[in-house]
Amino acid sequence: MTPAARIQAAIEMLDAVINAARSGGASADRIVAEGMKARRYAGSKDRRAIREHVYAAIRACGPVPQSGRAAMLRLASENPAIADHFDGSNYGPAPIEPGEPVAEGGIAPAWLEQALAESGIAGDDALVLLERAPLDVRINTLKAQAATLQLPEAGEPIAAPAGLRFAAGTPVERWDAFARGEIEVQDGGSQLACMAVTAQPGEVVIDLCAGAGGKTLSLAAQMENGGTLIAADTNRDRLSRLAPRAQRAGASIAQTILLDPGKELEMLSQWHEMADAVLVDAPCSGTGTWRRNPESRWRLDESEVARFAATQLEILEIAARLVRRGGRIVFVTCSLLDAEGAAVVEAFLGRNPGFSPLDVNLPAGESRGNGWRLTPARDGTDGFFIARIGRL
Questions:
Q1: Span 75-102, mean pLDDT?
Q2: For burial by CB atoms within 10 Å, which of 1, 114, 152, 297 has the most?
Q3: Is 194 among the catalytic positions?
Q4: CATH for 135-185, among 2.10.240, 2.40.50, 2.10.260, 3.30.70?
């Protein structure tokens, strides 16, 4: 493919990404993967270049662009080498017309930029949200130790004690150590969030929003497969991925529970006031993960953030029924918006006088309200809000 043809292919994929963002359709990763399948003639260098063009254009645009061409013109306005390939050649984009629409730059749609700024994320701290994330792994201490682990590349130690960092795109999932379950792909911030649970052997621990089980496996390692670890979620597809992952990791999960929305407490009745710790890794806007999913900022609106916050509070109320006296709830969101972090915890504590905030004190991050925050700019992790809440 010519450089111009690569840009035209990226424009077509960007059109699909923009339409999906507006309609709640497939992720950019899936759209790009499908777009590559439709271009089987493209070589590996072509595929890499097209993908880089697509994601560079997504990161260059703040609000949702008018079109894929407008998004690529935003990138071209910052990179003259891109503009040169709008040459009208075969399979390439048409020449740039005077006054042609160019997508707006920025961090995100204006309301979302303002919400981030009001939550203390602005300027360079916000710009970092659009950089490409590194790849972190967690050494699975059920099967390996850092001192003896053999990997094809030496990773960089991070703040999480069992964590190593590699360059984005490192093929760790093809390594023998991954196949043996000795390492798991997990962002360093996610590893630190699990540390905040301080799960101990012999405890009863419930992962209330387990999803595909990344944090569940980390908790199993903390507990040294001793005690009772429960994984629950309302998403059948995601929860179904936990069993094979647990088998590979050698992790002992006492019970996996598929919850019916609205019937969570009924289905968890045998665990009422039984848990030493409940992890609430709540659904959220994902503003802390834009380095991995930059187009997700085009999918949000203010009402959706409010719905996420309401759901988070509801799940905390469920967790409150499960934790024993003297036990703890650990509330986590991968959001940098106070509306989905400090404000939710404040509302929960105001409604539940039998609970009080506990110290977090992780080896990275800083306090935020009645909790703790990790940011890409300061800590090199995904963005997280983490709070520990004790039942009196």
A1: 93
A2: 297
A3: no
A4: 3.30.70
